[in-house]
Amino acid sequence: MSSWQFGLVVTSGLLTARLLSTTSYIVSFSEQFLWLSSALAGVLFYLAAYLMLRLGQQFPEETIGEYVPRLFGKMFGSGVFLVFITVLFINIINCTVALTKLTLVFLLDQTPQAVLIIVLLLAVAYCVMQDFGTILRVIQILVLALPLLYIFYSLIWLNFETLNILPLWPDHFIGILQGVMYHISYYAGYESLLVLLPMAKRGEVSFARTVGWGFLIVTLIYVFGGLVLVGSISAKTIASVPQPVVYGMKSIELPGTFIERLENYMIMFFIPVTYISMVLSYFSLTEGCRKYLHYNDHRTFIPVFLPLIFFVSIFIDTPERYDVFRYFGMYVILFFSFVIIPILLFLVWWKKGRRKNAKQNK
Amino acid sequence: MLSKINKVNAAKAVWRIVVVLISICACMLTTGCWDAKEIQDRNFVLIAAIDDADIVNKAESEKQIAQTQTFVQKQGTKEYMLSLQILKIAKSESKGGTQAKNTFVISNTGKPMFEMVRDMLGQSSKSLFFEHLEAIIISEAAVKKGGLRPILDFFRRDPEMRSRTKIFITPGEAKAIAEFNPPTGEPGGVYLNGLVQNHKKNIHVGGAKTDVGFIAQGMDNNTDYAIPRLNYIDNVVKLGGTALFKNDMFVGYADEYMTRGLKFIYGTEKSATIAVKCPEHSEQEIVYELFKHDTKLTPHIEGDTIYFTLDITMQGNIGEVNCAAEHDTHNLQFLHSIEELIAQEVSQNIQDCWAFQQGLGIDITNTKGRIKAYHPFEWKKIKDRWEEIYPTIPLIVSVNVNIRGTGEHN
Known about the structure:
The complex is a heterodimer. Chain A is mainly α.
């Protein structure tokens, strides 16, 4: 895959149905400054992705599972790899729960959640069973749903009221920063680049730039999306409804057209967009395991994780458990991105420096 | 060797069977039609009418009917009567030249709305479907009992409900309106929805931002709001004026004149009419037809003084001159004098409405929100004293009226 394809693949997995339920949490902290929170989070999570790129570039032919034991020792290395696997695992579960809940509430209210989860996981497993070239094509086709999703979402402008987004100057920075933390559901998924990096060809354009463009586009979508959402249904209402984006869409009426129930179309577009993230994370999970355990084929690991994903997704179906899982997931991902990765990078640079000094001393 | 080949073939056959079985299971599980419901298998609810049960069931016979319609409940009270107007999908035959009704009404008494709705399935052969709910009518008596929030909660919470469902407040009985058969032959819910959609042309109807979605936003933001008033007497339905709410409690009604003032401030009408006295014949009127209206309500804080300015620009036509003597409507001086009169009329109406709001202590124009938005730091200083400051805030109105046309005839 080319450098630009790498950027597209890594960032296409960021925008998923996970953001729908998280938006209420973010707005309960950042209020009408959702847009500012999203912009700051975009910078922060791009920084995390950038650190991962720098780390991966130190080992161009290897995935995280291969070089981490060398850096940290076998035991700590396996620990780090386990955290990495957990991060991807959490991402898949979050996507599964978000998408099935959304479908259950608004489309298929008579269908048991377990059935939807099984169907979704089977569809994901089927795609992951293909070789990476096919997966890449699937992602390139499905990512076209993203502009369509945004076009439908943009209809919320029809209800926009400037008063809802004013004042524009923030007076409670702590709330905005708290909101940034919860944006992990807006941006998670970039971690898969630690496995995908060796598959990408190094060209004239750097990965930092291609991934950066992807982050910029997604961040702009979030910033404008946040502005228009707050402008159309107000921050207080966003904080009071579980699925504010769908609620905002439900308020749209296009008089004189035959199209109604616009939220259903938007939900339909969320399915392929979320599917991309699930496929990518699941592929990275199995490919990472293959490299770590030196297997020939990533397909061996596909059936291993399916039951676990299914049972955890079913288990966290109560609000208390889901809240615990949400916080657990958030802290694990933040810990991995902002503690483990910088430590690894520091270790690599430190070891390199030591080697360089030793050579100079010789 | 042979046995090895047989084993391989057997393994292949087993694998094929497994694949076929998985495919069959996947087809059965993934089909989207297993819980599908046809249109004729649903009862489409068009109107939800909520009354005070004690007032509606006054007569002994009514009490007996209500007794049959309701249910024994351990929790909750028999505070409200919920009546649902349901669309008849099958066409009814008309009798003796009179138009057959295309809707019917079922009722129940209780308090949790959702429990009542589910109990109503005892009177409905098909499931009740609310996605096409056109109107929610609430009687003044019902809303005075515990405010709007407990009544509307079910309609805000249930995912089946739509945000753009219209709400009405009636001084009389809501159930009677649900039973009303419109002269147009339309179902009642569709008729009422159509009435309120005309608010852009009818300056006496406050129909903008008064549906479930906007009222829910008002409740979330703790702002005051207005809901269209619906009158009904002797098979006559009339929409006009608004019911005013503060902290979700009913405060009173704004008549057509005050509603007009509110609409001038908001600028929500698109083709309204304004009648003024003829400058030359004070007994006669000249009607101005408004077709473009820009309005800007701005808060100002200078030291300890808070005031609002309202800048209005109106464009429109002369719609009617009902003087006995003919006027030269192309005379610019005459037109300017009319423009001035209209501007005075609009300005006076707005000032009256502003004073009316302040008198009642309600803030439909969301002045609080505007100060918060444009002067956040000053707002922090005054927010605790807002209730005493609000009635003293003056409004400076500036109206600029333009007459762009004089109609098809002089």
